């Protein structure tokens, strides 16, 4: 069986830093309230001329360099995002254009915050099918564009950023060893933008009611996350025929520190071995796990041969985990 893994990874975050103290000037909130309930201290917002594909392109350049390949060797692009540049054109096609590539297939994956894991899963299968050799997987978001800056309960949670990986064949015994993904679809979504889609197109009334911005039932999302995050990690470990003690580190979706604390207790894994950077970036949705992975690589916290877990949850509701033996 062909072994598939990440051959190179890169990430990009915008320059603009927005602190909790900045939000104190915008809505009725406080730095203490945000930190104690979420663990977030600041986040990055894209510049006015930066869209999701721009962030993804910058992360992709770093992933290509890390993989030590020429961009012409990429034969498929997958972008995971909930904030595509346009409704009618995939951001993957725009990343392709910015890279100066032509002809290769490109498509977006919509699994919200689990998008990076879903996209890696698709890439894994497509490389194993021998239809593709080097797949560029991007998780990119500009959530600042869909966050309601008048809703103090949600606007403080989100940030912008991107991560990218080159996925291809790796040494025997390395790469993605176990994958588990799933979803619990729901009609009355607890995490949604009510208007702007085919079910409720935007009207003057929906815009007046701010229904074109993200809405979230925080309690329901929290309950879902603390249930599925540990379960799906253990499920993926079972597929990989490994145990929790075999892991060097876990890279969870960066949404809320209390969710990560709960997961650590439930699977009996040291909290300090969960990589956490949500204090700096907030919730960057499909980009969060990849950004965390990229930071850990920069710090030398991952070495070739380490067993790590990528695990997350998101709107849909979706969830997933990948166990991999790091290949470089």
Keywords for this entry:
23% strand; 13 strands; four-stranded mixed sheet; alpha/beta
Topology of helices and strands:
Elements: E1 4-12, E2 16-19, H1 20-24, H2 31-38, E3 42-45, H3 52-67, E4 76-80, H4 91-99, E5 106-109, H5 115-128, E6 135-142, E7 160-169, E8 175-183, E9 191-192, H6 204-208, E10 215-216, H7 218-240, E11 249-252, H8 257-267, H9 278-281, H10 288-298, E12 307-314, E13 318-325
Parallel strand pairs: 4-5, 4-6, 11-12
Antiparallel strand pairs: 1-7, 2-3, 6-7, 8-13, 9-10, 12-13
Helix pairs in contact: 3-4, 7-8
Mean pLDDT over the full residue set: 96
The main sheet comes to:
5 strands, mixed
- Radius of gyration, in angstroms, nearest whole number: 19 Å
How many β-strands, per DSSP? 13
* Approximate strand percentage: 15-25%
Helix content: 25-40%
Distance separating the two termini: 20 Å
Give the strand order, joined by hyphens, for the main sheet: 1-7-6-4-5
Class per helix and strand makeup: alpha/beta
Number of separate helices:
10
The shape is: globular
Q: Please mark out the parts with pLDDT under 50 across 5 or more consecutive residues, or reply none.
A: none
Written as H for each helix and E for each strand, in order along the chain, the element string is: EEHHEHEHEHEEEEHEHEHHHEE
Describe this structure as you would to a colleague.
The chain is built from ten helices and 13 strands. With 328 residues, the chain is an alpha/beta fold. Strand 4 (76-80), helix 4 (91-99) and strand 5 form a beta-alpha-beta unit. The two termini are 20 Å apart.
């Amino acid at each position: 069986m062909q072994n598939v893994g990440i051959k190179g990874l890169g990430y990009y975050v915008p320059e603009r830093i927005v602190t909790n103290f900045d939000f104190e000037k915008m809505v009725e909130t406080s730095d203490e309230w945000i930190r104690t309930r979420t663990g977030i201290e600041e986040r990055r917002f894209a510049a006015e001329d930066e869209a999701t594909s721009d962030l993804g392109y910058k992360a992709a350049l770093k992933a290509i360099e890390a993989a030590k390949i020429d961009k012409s060797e990429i034969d498929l692009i997958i972008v995971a995002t909930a904030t595509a540049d346009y409704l009618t054109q995939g951001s993957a096609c725009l990343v392709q254009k910015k890279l100066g590539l032509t002809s290769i297939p490109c498509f977006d994956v919509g699994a919200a915050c689990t998008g990076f894991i879903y996209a890696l899963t698709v890439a894994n299968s497509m490389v194993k099918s021998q239809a593709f050799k080097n797949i560029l997987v991007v998780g990119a978001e500009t959530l600042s564009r869909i966050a309601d800056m008048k809703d103090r309960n949600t606007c403080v949670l989100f940030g912008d950023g991107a991560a990218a990986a080159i996925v291809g064949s790796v040494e025997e015994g390395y790469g993605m060893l176990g994958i588990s993904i799933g979803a619990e679809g729901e009609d009355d979504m607890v995490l949604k933008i009510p208007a702007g889609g085919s079910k409720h197109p935007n009207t003057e009334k929906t815009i007046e009611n701010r229904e074109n911005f993200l809405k979230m039932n925080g309690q329901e999302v929290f309950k879902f996350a603390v249930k599925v995050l540990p379960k799906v990690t253990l499920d993926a470990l079972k597929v990989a025929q490994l145990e929790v003690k075999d892991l060097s580190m876990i890279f969870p979706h960066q949404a809320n520190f209390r969710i990560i604390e709960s997961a650590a207790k439930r699977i009996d894994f040291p909290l300090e071995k969960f990589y956490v950077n949500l204090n700096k970036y907030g919730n960057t949705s499909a980009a969060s796990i990849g950004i965390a992975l990229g930071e850990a690589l920069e710090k030398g916290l991952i070495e070739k041969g380490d067993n790590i877990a990528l695990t997350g949850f998101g709107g849909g509701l979706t969830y997933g985990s990948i166990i991999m033996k790091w290949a470089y």
